[in-house]
Design a protein that fits this description.
The chain is mainly α. It has helices at about 10-30, 35-50, 50-65, 70-75, 85-100, 110-120, 120-145, 155-160. It comes from Amycolatopsis mongoliensis.
Length: about 160
């Protein structure tokens, strides 16, 4: 399966991509812990089958010091002992917010209550926005068959900061 279209080599796609990357900077600069951001992005990307985003968030997490054990267990976080209760709440939100079509109520009240136990208002705003943004990113990359494997840590941030 070849990449269908290179959004970054198209004027409209590149302008959109720059603004999209800048949105990611909002979450990155928030008080939501960086490990949580990467775990949430990785889990949503796994669910959506986005090789590019799995590649990106695995490498960004590793570059930030995340362990291989935790990265390898994200897909089975419920059956793992390596995640905090706060991370587990965020991962549950990521899954339920990603699988909206699978549950008519969307994010459950139980999951929402667990998120509110562990995160303040700014972190909740960042978490909700992150789940929405990573799902949009997954869809962009999957639609054009953007492949994983070539991402280097910091590429996305460098793209966002380009003038």
């Amino acid at each position: 399966m070849e990449t269908r279209f290179d959004l970054m080599n198209n004027e409209i796609g590149a302008r959109f991509g720059k603004r999209f990357a800048n949105l990611g900077q909002v979450m990155e600069r928030s008080s939501l812990p960086k490990p949580t951001q990467e775990l949430v992005s990785l889990r949503a990307s796994q669910i959506n089958g986005c090789g590019w985003c799995i590649d990106m968030h695995t490498k960004e997490a590793a570059a930030a010091g995340e362990t291989a054990v935790r990265l390898n267990l994200v897909a089975a976080w419920r059956e793992s002992t390596v995640f905090t209760e706060a991370e587990r709440a965020a991962l549950a939100l990521a899954e339920e917010g990603t699988r909206l079509a699978d549950a008519h109520d969307g994010v459950s009240d139980e999951t929402w209550a667990r998120v509110r136990e562990h995160y303040d208002d700014d972190q909740v705003a960042a978490l909700v926005a992150l789940v929405a943004l990573i799902n949009a990113a997954n869809r962009l990359a999957v639609i054009v068959h953007q492949k994983g494997g070539s991402y280097q840590p910091g590429m996305f941030t460098a793209f966002a900061e380009r003038g």
